[in-house]
Amino acid sequence: MTERDRHSPEEAGGETLFTIEQLAGICARDGDWVRLRLTEGMLPAAPHGSGQVRFSAAALRRARRMAAIERDFDAVPELAALMADLLDELDRLRGRLRSHGLE
Q: Taking the model in full, what pTM does it have?
């Protein structure tokens, strides 16, 4: 694996996928931070045929939100995950409002 391969996200089925190291780097965290949240079910992994863990763009957005909440509010991971769930739901509801011309 070249240095570029290690830092460049993969494309699979038209979707960009990120490794644990890439996700950690983008979130300014280490790989153990990502692994813990993955193990605890706070970050979803994308299906990938290589047998290695990959993350979608949605998981990247969630991880960045969680990292920011933990950092900015000194929140425990569980609280950051709950807040990320609520923010995701707000985004979904706002999208529905926009699609109906109500925002």
A: 0.83
